[in-house]
Design goal:
heterodimer, A: 288 residues, mainly alpha, B: 249 residues, alpha/beta, 6-stranded mixed β-sheet, 4-stranded antiparallel β-sheet
Chain lengths: 288, 249
């Protein structure tokens, strides 16, 4: 015990080394986790950038054999599809999540929560087949509406569960403050609880929309695809993902290239959506 | 002496657990009644019963509580809580709203939409809660970005805005520093001219300073109720005496 300090012994060094090794392992794991993302970005950007020009956004696809052209119809189509999906999935998801969190401490709530989890585990292609049977078959043709509904159904579980979790994070004291002011429960829920949880809910909505924008399988049975310009929700509609699927497996080099560009545009679109949500939900106040 | 709230043979339960036993208290108008007692004696439950906030946390009651002679278990809780407001232990301003909106929200959500009507009320309530001079230049700042003491006075202003007759305070200063506590106590003294106040407190000096009457609760029972002066100088009950002298609790 010289100078009042403990002398480092064998165990001290062993602990230091173990600590270092464990930390290195977690660091390597963290690195491994981002590798796929880096690869995805690398390939889509390097391969997709060649065809990325203004034409791609404003021009229509060219017939087989002609090079050039764009995917204006598919970009608009994807936006319409996630628009229809969002019109269904967002209100249903947010309201279900609100119900589960604020009023769902009963058997019905338990059943709904369980079924939402089941729904989130159902393969998207199955949802597509169901939408096909229920909408496409009676309407006798493929349509944007059928595709949008399938995407809307796929959004519901994500948005529901995120909303529920986010609302649960709102402190009970805020609900009590609202109720103690003589504000009815529904108004407290809407104007105080949902308002406080709004940022987190928006993240759930964004996740739902992004997932829907990236779906291909359910669209094959419902929206089908369209080589021409169409914005009618009663008609088959083009989408980026179905184009990627068609073009990537085609024998034409030119189309394969465009598939990469379509993939890049899809990623850009989702990033843009994400940025938009960040701006919209930016807090008026700095948090301390 | 006019009685504002008359509690008769009140029992309160959480599930099957009985937490208040046969409480009877007459609460006088425009006075401050302090409720003291050790932790878990039912003080908070008791004041929650007075505006039916006990229902929010799953409590039930038996007995009668009359507000101006009207049985409040038979009125609508939403209407009741406009008349009987509440300030909580931990300051709980709405963090997603500005200081102005924190005060205005009770009015707005109760149907007052006219800005010309709201603005003077907000100013008046902030003045009443002695916060106006400190925040008048930053009314658009978040309600959560001011100090804890200011937040609590904001919560009081928010409660005043819906124009209640009774204000319940559940240990309103226990999370605050001594200076903020003094401000809240001065405020209570001012407010009793217009409002009937029931305050739960752990702090016996505080009860002695702010209240006209003091009720001592122990194990869910009302042990003694008298003028504050008498409770702290010559209580009639042995348990009360032991408690105020600091022998237990």
């Amino acid at each position: 015990m010289e100078n009042g300090m403990m002398k480092p012994d064998f165990f001290f060094y062993r602990k230091k080394i173990t600590s270092f090794i464990m930390m290195s392992l977690t660091f390597i794991a963290a690195l491994a986790a981002i590798i796929p993302l880096v690869l995805i970005f690398y390939y889509t950007i390097s391969k997709g950038i060649t065809y990325l020009n203004l034409d791609f956004f404003v021009a229509m696809p060219k017939p087989v054999g002609e090079s050039g052209g764009g995917m204006a119809n598919a970009i608009v189509g994807t936006l319409i599809l996630i628009g229809i999906g969002g019109a269904i999935g967002i209100p249903v998801g947010i309201m279900t999540g609100t119900y589960l969190s604020e009023f769902g401490k009963n058997k019905f709530g338990y059943v709904v929560r369980f079924l939402t989890d089941v729904l989130s585990g159902i393969p998207s292609i199955v949802v597509g087949v169901v939408a096909y049977t229920m909408i496409v078959v009676p309407m006798k043709h493929f349509s944007a509406l059928a595709g949008g509904i399938a995407l809307g159904i796929l959004m519901i579980p994500t948005i529901t569960r995120t909303t529920e979790e986010m609302i649960k994070l709102v402190p009970q004291t805020l609900r009590e403050a609202g109720l103690a002011l003589g504000i009815p429960k529904w108004k407290t829920t809407l104007s105080i609880v949902l308002k406080s949880a709004w940022k987190g809910i928006a993240t759930g909505v964004l996740l739902g929309l992004s997932r829907a924008a990236g779906e291909t399988a359910p669209l094959l049975f419902t929206a089908l695809g369209n080589r021409f310009w169409s914005t009618s929700i009663g008609q088959p509609i083009a989408s980026l993902t179905v184009y990627i699927y068609d073009y990537a497996k085609s024998p034409f080099e030119d189309w394969n290239q465009q598939a990469w560009t379509a993939a890049l545009v899809l990623i850009l679109l989702i990033s843009l959506l994400s940025l938009l949500f960040r701006v919209i939900t930016r807090s008026k106040y700095k948090t301390n | 002496m006019e009685i504002k709230i008359s509690v008769k043979n009140l029992d309160a339960f959480y599930g099957k657990n009985k937490v208040l036993h046969n409480i009877s208290i007459d609460i006088p108008k425009n006075k401050v009644l302090a409720i003291i007692g050790p932790s878990g004696c039912g003080k908070s439950t008791f004041i929650r019963c007075l505006n039916r906030m006990h229902e929010v946390v799953g409590g039930t009651i038996k007995g009668e509580i009359l507000l101006d002679g009207e049985d409040l278990t038979k009125t609508d809780p939403v209407l009741l809580r406009k008349r009987v407001g509440m300030v909580f232990q931990k300051p709980n301003p709405f963090p997603s709203m500005s200081i102005f909106d924190n005060v205005a929200t009770g009015l707005r959500l109760n149907g007052v939409r006219n800005k010309k009507q709201i603005t003077p009320i907000v100013e008046k309530c902030l003045k009443q809660s002695a916060l106006w001079d400190e925040v008048k230049d930053q009314l658009n700042k978040s309600g959560a970005n001011i100090s804890g003491g200011q937040q609590q006075r904001l919560c009081i202003a928010r409660t005043l805005a819906v124009d209640p007759e009774v204000i319940l305070m559940d240990e309103p200063a226990s999370a605050l520093d001594p200076i903020s506590t003094t401000k809240i106590e001065d405020l209570i003294f001012q407010l009793k001219k217009d409002y009937t106040i029931v305050i739960v407190t752990h702090n016996m000096q505080q009860a002695a300073r702010v209240s006209d009457y003091t009720a001592f609760f122990y194990m869910g029972k009302l042990i003694e109720l008298d003028e504050t002066n008498k409770i702290f100088t010559s209580p009639s009950n042995k348990q009360t005496e032991d408690y105020v002298r600091g022998r237990f609790g």
